[in-house]
Amino acid sequence: MKNAKIEWTDHTFNPWIDCQHVSPGCDHCYAEAQNAFRKWNGGTWGPHAPRKQTSEENWKNPIKWNAGARAFKREHGRRPRVFCASLAGVFDKQAESTWRHDLFPLIRECRRLDWLLLTKRPQDIARMLPADWGGGYRNVWLGVTAENQTYFDQRWKHLQNIPAIIKFISYEPALGPLRLPKDGPVPDWLISGGESGGGARPLNPQWVRDIIKDCQNRGVALLRHYTNSGEPTTVIRSSCSRAWPSKRRSARTHLGREEAWLTGSWSASSRCVYVEGKAS
Ligand code: SF4
Question: What b/e string do you get for 82-97 counting C-beta neighbours within 10 Å, with b at 16 or more?
């Protein structure tokens, strides 16, 4: 059973709550607004607000999802995904390091779940990973938010050097153009979307056309889940059973015109399958 409304995950798990603004992508932070309303952390937010660890009961949820993961896979054809810390920062310096020491064993234990760790603080990832991280846990995808080219350039340079089974970019909210490098390492997966909600900053459709083209050219799987530009909304889902194939060369991808589509047969073992559908 999914507990997340976010298009690209099935569950959200918050080991703690509270965070602080890092860059312009945070200006309309959903978590901050929700915290002000629901008072999860007394309504406080930001650099001077103490982070609050969530309840023991909440920490048991991933164990339950992990127990149901086989059934989920039978139903959905892929492993369940958990976006960790939608209301906080996994690599936030102000979160107690002992909480992270508890979090990573839980992640490792719940090995039938794919954990998505998305951050705007990639410069802190390496020193906060557990000692047994090695080449990356098989069930953890590491991602950075890049709302425009400046933040892509700043953050990807850190992430590209950290071992992880899948690396991804969240180009959301897209606040400016972003082009992938023509050569050198690129992420495995990219999520793109415009800002939503009141006062949403506009998205230029040309940014979307450009990033679709770059993903096509560099063999990057794309999930484009909505825009706020009045364009047709196309959803492209990628589904990986376990590890992303390392030989991107063998990918057959095609993205066509404005109505993007992508089909993949990534490797001899065909571990990755793509399906597409229209967002409602
Ligand atoms: S990093 Fe995320 S959770 Fe933290 S303030 Fe920015 S948008 Fe909000």
Answer: bbbbbbbbbbbebbee
The yes-or-no verdict on residue 185 having pLDDT over 60 is yes
Report the distance separating Cα 197 and Cα 120, nearest Å.
Answer: 21
Question: 175 or 239: which carries more pLDDT confidence?
Answer: 175
Cα→Cα distances 266→129, 240, 271, Å:
29, 10, 7
C-alpha 45 – ligand 1 centre gap (Å): 10
Indicate if the pLDDT at residue 255 is higher than 80. no
Residue 140, amino acid: V
Q: How confident is the model at residue 227 (pLDDT cuts 50, 70, 90)?
A: low
Q: Could you give the count of Cα atoms lying within 13 Å of 180 in the half-sphere of its Cβ?
A: 30
Q: Which atom of ligand 1 has the smallest separation from the CA of 86?
A: 3
- The CB of 26 under 6 Å from ligand 1? The reply is yes
Task: Write down the pLDDT at residue 1.
Answer: 66
Task: Please name the residue whose Cα sits nearest to atom 7 of ligand 1.
Answer: 26
